[in-house]
C-alpha cells in the first residue's frame, strides 16, 4: 500500500512563510503594540467604527447574508 500524495498544479504558488514559534521577545513586542493601541486617545476608532460597521452591513445585504452587528 502506498501513501497518497496531494495533487499539485504546475502554477500553484509555494508557501513563502514559516510560522515562527513564540518567544519572550515576540511576546514583549506584541504587548508593547497592544499597550500603545489601548493608550491611543485620538478618537480614530470612535470616528471610523460607525462607517466601517455600515459598510460591512451594506455588503452583507448585497449577498443576502445576515447583519453582523445588532446595535
- The shape is flat
Residue share in helix? 40-55%
Task: Write the element-wise H/E pattern from the N-terminal end onward.
Answer: HH
Q: N-to-C terminal Cα separation, in Å?
A: 57 Å
Radius of gyration: 22 Å
Largest sheet: none
Number of strands: 0
Structure annotation, total helices: 2
Strand content: under 5%
Mean pLDDT: 82
Q: Could you list the spans in which at least 5 consecutive residues all have pLDDT below 50?
A: none
Classify the secondary structure makeup into a structural class. Answer: mainly alpha
Task: Give a structural overview.
By secondary structure, the chain is mostly helical. 49% of the residues lie in helices and 0% in strands. It contains two helices and no strands.
Topology:
Layout (H helix, E strand, L loop, with lengths): L23 H16 L4 H19 L9
Amino acid at each position: 500500500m502506498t501513501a497518497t500524495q496531494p495533487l499539485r498544479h504546475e502554477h500553484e504558488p509555494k508557501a513563502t512563510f514559516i510560522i515562527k514559534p513564540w518567544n519572550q521577545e515576540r511576546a514583549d513586542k506584541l504587548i508593547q503594540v497592544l499597550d500603545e493601541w489601548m493608550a491611543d486617545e485620538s478618537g480614530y476608532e470612535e470616528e471610523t467604527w460607525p462607517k466601517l460597521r455600515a459598510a460591512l452591513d451594506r455588503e452583507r445585504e448585497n449577498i443576502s447574508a445576515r447583519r453582523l452587528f445588532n446595535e
